[in-house]
Amino acid sequence: QRDGRDAKVPLEEYRAAMMERVIREANTLDDFRQLWVEKTRRRELIDHLLGENYSPSSLREQLPEVGDCDDFDVFAHYAYHTTLLPRQARADLYLHRQQAWFNSLNPKAAAVLRGLGHQFSAGGTEALESDYLWQVPEIRLAGGINALQSAGNPAALFLDAKRRLFGG
Asked: Where is the EcoEI R protein C-terminal domain (predicted)?
């Protein structure tokens, strides 16, 4: 609304206002990354945006250049001026850059953590938090959560993998 009347807000203005709102919640890219990997905090951010009439899905519909990018990359690009990466490119970077980490773990845990990268490329952040994740053949056959337990605390490893995936 403008001056008490419904009015169409120009896309650039809407996007800028939404990104200002994101920055208020996460001042830096590192703050945003930390927020994003924590499901509860990320959902709170999305709820806050929706509560202020900022719809990430509506914005995506108006920005064809975001194509196959995860919402993390859309927010990171427009709020923090990072390179806009499609999901496959982000997954490939994770799989390549984390090779030494994977090699430091037992093979089954490493296979599960590589599987997270493959699942991200297919479905983004939401795929990593789907109940189906642990039923994906690649992850299930490697031992799933049990394989992660053999390498340490599964929840901590999972969170670490997400931080690494998003560039942390």
From this structure: 13-148
pLDDT at 9: 84
Give the Cα separation of 126 and 129 in Å (integer). 5
Q: Other C-beta atoms within 10 Å of 25: how many?
A: 15
> What's the confidence (pLDDT) of residue 4?
64
Predicted confidence at residue 168, as pLDDT, reads 64
Nearest alpha carbon to residue 141 among 111, 117, 116:
111
Task: Evaluate the CA torsion angle 24, 160, 118, 144 in order and state its sign.
Answer: negative
Whether residue 3 is predicted with pLDDT greater than 70 in this model: the reply is no
Q: Report d(CA 72, CA 78) in Å as an integer.
A: 10
Give strand pairing partners of 86. 69
How many CA atoms are closer than 13 Å to the CA of 86, on its beta-carbon side?
7
Could you give the CA distance from residue 119 to residue 133 in angstroms, rounded to a whole number? 8
For the record, the structure tokens of 45 come out as 């951010």
Per-residue pLDDT, averaged over 48-77, amounts to 94
Q: What is the pLDDT of residues 85-128, one digit of tens each?
A: 999 999 999 999 999 999 999 999 999 999 999 999 999 999 99
Rounded distance between C-alpha atoms, residue 130 and residue 105, angstroms: 24
| 137 residue type, one letter | P
